[in-house]
Write a structure and sequence with these properties.
Blueprint: H1 3-18, H2 20-83, H3 87-107, E1 110-112, E2 124-130, E3 139-144, E4 147-149, E5 152-155, E6 157-162
Parallel strand pairs: 2-6
Antiparallel strand pairs: 1-4, 3-6, 4-5
Helix pairs in contact: 1-2, 2-3
């Protein structure tokens, strides 16, 4: 306990001995002041956290954009090759764009959802069920790839699953 706090306690005890109402009023005012200071500190903390979160989101967007700008350049080159009707160059350009974009998104944590084997309703969406030689519930065709970012599904894989043996 500091010297000032001890002095305040002694003063409060002396005042309480003389007039208890004054002592209670003084104590109430001290609590109110402490509460107001705490409220102001919490408001400042809340604003600082909101500002930090906004800065973090901005930096994340900036990093992603920096990764995608070269992909945009590759796409422009592919379009220029298409204007010259050079099919081989166009195909190479499109492959380059696809690879660049896939690499940029993989760096951000995007991964393809595996679709081999049994149907998983958590990561896949069954659009059709067809009779086939495969076991029931096995994925037999992928109509659209699915992707996950970290542990969250961004887009489920759209698949066709087997309904079991074909009947003749």
């Amino acid at each position: 306990m500091s010297e000032d706090e001890r002095t305040d306690e002694v003063e409060l005890e002396e005042v309480a001995a003389v007039d208890p109402v004054v002592a209670v009023t003084k104590e109430r005012d001290e609590y109110r002041d402490a509460l107001q200071r705490l409220k102001a500190e919490f408001d400042n903390y809340r604003k600082r956290v909101a500002r930090d979160q906004q800065e973090l989101a901005t930096r994340a967007h900036e990093r992603l954009v920096k990764e995608l700008v070269p992909v945009l350049d590759d796409l422009e080159r592919a379009l220029e090759a298409a204007a010259d009707h050079e099919e081989a160059k166009l195909e190479d350009g499109v492959r380059l764009v696809h690879r660049s974009l896939a690499d940029a998104l993989a760096k951000e944590g995007l991964r393809e959802i595996p679709t081999d084997g049994t149907f998983d309703p958590h990561t896949q969406e069954a659009l059709l069920s067809q009779p086939s030689d495969a076991d029931e519930g096995t994925v037999i065709q992928v109509l659209q790839k699915g992707y996950a970012l970290g542990d969250r599904v961004v887009r489920p894989a759209r698949v066709i699953i087997s309904s079991g043996e074909q009947t003749a």
